[in-house]
Structure prediction request, 591 residues.
Amino acid sequence: MGKQSMMLVSKYPVSETNGFIFVRIQGGFHEIRNSICDVVVVARLLNATLAMPEIQSTTSSKGISSQFKSFAYLYNEEQFVLSLAKDVTVVRTLPKDLKGARRKKEIPVFKVPYSASPFYYFHHVLPVLKKHSVVELVVSEGGCLKATLPPNFEEYQRLRCRVSFHALQFRQEVQELSAKILQRLRAPGRPFIAFDPGMTRESLTYHGCAELFQDVHTELIQHKRSWMIKRGIVKGKLSVNSAEERLKGSCPLMPQEIGILLRAYGYSKDAIIYVSGGEVFGGQRTLIPLHAMFENVIDRTSLSTPWEMIRLYGKEVNLVDTPGPPPFVEEVTKHAAWKSAGPRPRPLPPPPARPKSYNIEGWWGWVAESDNEPDSTVIELRTNAHKLLWEAIDYVICVEADVFIPGFDRDGKGHPNFASLVMGHRLYLSAASKTFRPDRKEVAKLLDEIRDHGHHANHTWLESVRRHLKKTLLDGIMEASNKSKLLSFLSHPVPECSCSRDSFEVSKNSSSPLTSQLVTSLGVAHRCPAWMDTGPISQSKDKENEEDVYEDDSVSELFFKQNAENHEGDSEVNIKEENQFEDQEDDSGER
Prediction:
């Protein structure tokens, strides 16, 4: 099966299939979403019936609710099947005989590479599929198909968009809670900014950013980097100059740096900042500078109640980690010596009370104990499943935000991360959405200019920051097209998935220079079909308007600080200030 076979692939599904594809997907939220879109396209390429993908993060977790299983833990199965009915045949499970053969490990298994070409599937997978009528694919790298495909495969790129932006709807409980949180965010009547730090231990490790932190967090990153080097995940050296990497733009922008950019741009102290992400490495202390600059820095936990989260998780069993054996005598002695020891030049984690025991929110005693990462406890496995739901909520909030700004756009494998998917989705919904894409290399230079006098930045520097951020609204899209798209199509799904709607025609005729430049650069090709008018986000908005959520203005007061007595007046002032600033920027650009 060579290039000729690739050219003869039908653009439309055929009634008779070559067999069944069963998929096991590993990884976090953005990896799962990318992978599902890829496997649907692979099923279409091979003219195969796709069994409902299995999400390993939920099936391997103990104690999660039996009410939701695997794919249904995160997404709406029925919507997924119905939305793809004209593209790929999707079944909820394998036939009984094939299911039994899989349990006995009698069906062929492929551990597919991250960026496999269509030729790989035609040459390696298709012959086996035709012979056995079933194959199992293990997707562990966050994708299994090249991001860029030949021009004659454009219809398959559009299929990726149909999967990600229309077929993949979150289950009802996630959508309902996301709608409530959105309503609470918008209750004050002001725009809100969504900020995704992108600061995970894996991404900081991969890109060599250990020295951005101090003490034990640096040791944790270096320990992980050593582990990744031994397994070939990282090709570089163990010790990396983080200051140099930061100047190259390879490290995330810290929350403090994002705060400085937003304040310099003109956002007021009472602006609403929503912080997304299931994990911010370094804990809440890394967000303290951001809290000092903005009064209303909030996240999912501050906008939802415990009983709402319990309803989201479903009925779960109580889990208690089984205590290990009592510590050895010498370990007790070490622990006692630690408590009675004098001051040290820097704090170090105390030795663990028992082997391989640690607290994910406290000191990490296992760092000096073993070269290996500790096995996850049962509670941690369940927490990993919960993180998928947390990030699902954050995803909806970030896509719907009035303004979005990422701290980083790469994950722990060098691939586009959660923020990249959000930016791609926002671009797909509206090219004119306000999405900042800071050039980290340029920002590092700007911030170093005021490092010693940050509280007395001059007007010239402020104008430089403002020009840079406004420039990224357009140039950032072009950069994503040249860089991110090569690794993840969904991070920049245009022009393949671009089309015009009535609302877009209005913006196209808008007097805004930025909007007209965006339309010109993206090159809208054709009008959208009618079925695209009811996407997952618009449906959730309609549902939010239709349902009686029992919320009123008094609820928002629980979540936001009010400085002035007349809050409506404040919101009008903020909007006027922002519009006035943008007018000034347009005038300065003309000069």
